[in-house]
Q: What sequence folds into this?
């Protein structure tokens, strides 16, 4: 299976609390909900198209618990997003959880990168990470992410947890697709290429 990482980020790289003011207040964060004003039908269709390629979800504990509170309790359980999210196999990376209530689900503990590598070796389409920034960072560091999908909102949040803080593993990327939506979201899709390349700029006229 192919491992993909989808993240909502602001122009200044914040990924914390995109969906609502009370989604993630860790560290006293009070600026949540910054992504929502820019959502539109084009973005929702893209999100649906991505989700339709999933054969499983890989989630961190916090994201799993947030999703487990919301998706099974949607007013219309037959709504396409809810039906897909609830029916997909979930893999939860956690050394705290011993069981998972939002089924079908499997808890991955111990050497999570090794277990994810085993999952990637199975037949299937995509194993998808949504949110779960810390998990995404660890999977990038392990060289396991095949495709990075960034949805960038036209806003500077000014504080909050960054998707790529200092110390993030250096990673080379190749842009394979980019487009914008009427709501101003910039969608950038990258393939990972291993270690980043470097070079020395030689100005015009220099040999």
A:
């Amino acid at each position: 299976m192919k491992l993909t990482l989808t993240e909502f980020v602001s122009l200044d790289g914040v990924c914390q609390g995109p969906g609502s003011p009370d989604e993630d207040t860790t560290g006293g964060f009070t600026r949540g909900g910054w992504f929502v004003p820019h959502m539109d039908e084009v973005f929702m269709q893209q999100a649906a198209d991505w989700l339709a390629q999933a054969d499983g979800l890989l989630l961190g504990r916090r994201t799993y618990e947030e999703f487990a509170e919301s998706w099974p309790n949607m007013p219309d359980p037959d709504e396409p997003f809810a039906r897909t999210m609830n029916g997909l196999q979930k893999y939860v990376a956690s050394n705290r959880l011993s069981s998972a209530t939002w089924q079908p689900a499997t808890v991955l503990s111990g050497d999570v990168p090794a277990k994810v590598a085993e999952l990637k070796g199975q037949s299937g389409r995509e194993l998808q990470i949504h949110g779960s920034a810390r998990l995404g960072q660890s999977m990038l560091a392990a060289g396991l992410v095949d495709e990075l999908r960034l949805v960038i909102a036209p806003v500077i949040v000014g504080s909050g947890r960054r998707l790529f803080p200092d110390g993030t593993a250096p990673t080379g990327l190749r842009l394979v697709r980019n487009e914008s939506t009427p709501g101003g979201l910039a969608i950038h899709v990258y393939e990972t290429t291993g270690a980043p390349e470097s070079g020395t700029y030689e100005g015009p006229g220099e040999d």
The mean pLDDT is 94.
